[in-house]
Amino acid sequence: MALSLSDAPEAGLLIDVEFLLGHDWLVGVILTFERGELVLVANADDDQLLVVDTVGPEKRVAASHQRPWNDAIGRHCLWSWSMPNNTGHVDGAQFLLQRRQKLTLSFSCSSRLLRSRSSKCCSFQ
Asked: pTM here?
């Protein structure tokens, strides 16, 4: 089932991450949760980050075994939100995932490419 950004906190645990490559550049990411897939792609025309239902001809590459994605697997999404730029276009999204420690995943569009980063904070007993 295709998920929207607002569906992520109710979608269960993150179970898989795949990159979408176009001409060997990162152009999207597929986050697979227990209850469906959330597909984020960079729009080449205006650098917007889009949530789409289907994947185009891009090459899918497994990323769940790579850092920092391997640390995100098995975590529940507490929050997800879009990040609009100064013109009102959504060019980024963030996810706050938790197991014992919180992990923030960020995605942003720049020059028709998708960029990602992660950070950990707040240990919990």
From this structure: 0.84
